[in-house]
Amino acid sequence: MSNGYSSGIEPTISINNLHRIYHLEGEDIHAVNGISLDIWPNYMTAIVGRSGSGKTTLLNLVAGLDNSTQGDIHILGRNLSAMNEPERLNMRLHEIGFVFQSFGLMPLLSAFENVSIPLRMRGASPRERDAQVREALEWVGLAERAKHRPYELSGGEQQRVAIARALAAHPKLILADEPTGQLDTRTGRRILDLLRRLVVEREITVVIVSHDPQVMQEADVVHEMRDGKLMETRIKPGIILPDGSKGNTAYMEDSRSAYTVA
Ligand SMILES: Nc1ncnc2c1ncn2[C@@H]1O[C@H](COP(=O)(O)OP(=O)(O)OP(=O)(O)O)[C@@H](O)[C@H]1O
Ligand SMILES: [Mg+2]
User: Fold this and answer.
1) Does residue 16 contact residue 212 with C-beta atoms inside 8 Å?
2) Cα(first)–Cα(last) distance of the chain, in Å?
3) Tens of pLDDT along 28-87?
């Protein structure tokens, strides 16, 4: 696929005029209303906006968990609408890690078993699986908590288990829906540091859906949604994206915001 970007780097996700209309009891809800944006590899990108602005709907469409009403999504070099359900599932299992707001851990399973679930679904051998689970738990600093069940862990630890689960299969992309939503500020900070290390040390593209101000501070690129539309894209000072877009330096001097307006 070539899209003519001069850097030769392709976006990890490219969304083009995307719409999702829900039909509910005779009412049309335009949850995603004509979104176009690119998400670039090896950056932390945030999609922010008020409750009901369409963030989760957009994330579900990107992951192939829901079908758009109109528009295109290219993800990890493929056209999502041309993929059938087994192909989408395969992509989710092998190339994408998910982190959910409510951690999404199985209450009766240990941290170790929870992290191993996607690897089991992939059919990894027990040896490979155990090594990857151990490595992932070590990476999030929870090797000593491997045997704990979720209720024997703090909220921050549970979210770290969820991150270990997302990264155990060595994905290229992590999609996180409100990963700090249920955490206090300090614990949320630790989770963001961990997600930042995934970008820097493991070259994983991280996309976070959130309304947490800390996430907006930390992300390299912030796309703000309102009523299903993209209102604004802010890029951290000093960053020039592969398509040439960058922050506006005049705005950078403005101490009210750590961001610049693209
Ligand atoms: N399955 C559905 N059927 C009908 N309407 C839906 C469905 N899912 C979401 N919506 C509506 O679409 C809009 C966008 O919802 P969405 O969950 O994407 O918002 P959000 O930005 O993730 O909000 P939050 O920050 O509260 O998680 C809302 O008005 C919601 O009520
Ligand atoms: Mg949501």
Assistant:
1) no
2) 26
3) 999 999 999 999 999 999 999 999 999 999 999 999 999 999 999 999 999 999 999 999
Q: Positive or negative CA dihedral for 224, 189, 203, 56? A: negative
260-261/229-235 β-pairing? antiparallel
**Domain range enclosing 102:** 41-64+79-261
Hey, whose CA ends up nearest to atom 2 of ligand 1?
22
Q: Nearest-CA neighbor of 48 among 259, 189, 243, 193?
A: 259
Residue 114 lies in a domain: yes
The answer to whether residue 21 sits within a structural domain is: no
118, two tokens: 């996607």
CATH number of the domain that residue 147 is part of: 3.40.50.300
Nearest atom in ligand 1 to the alpha carbon of residue 57 is 18
Strand stretches in the chain, DSSP E: 13-24, 27-39, 44-48, 70-75, 78-79, 96-99, 173-177, 205-210, 221-226, 229-235, 260-261
Q: How many domains does the chain have?
A: 1
pTM: 0.89
Proximal ligand: closest to the CA of 48: 1
Distance 55 CA to ligand 1 centre (A): 8
Residue at 119 is within a domain: yes
| Residue at 49 is within a domain | yes
Closest CA to ligand 1's atom 8: 57
| HSE value, Cβ hemisphere, 13 Å, CA-based, for 75 | 24
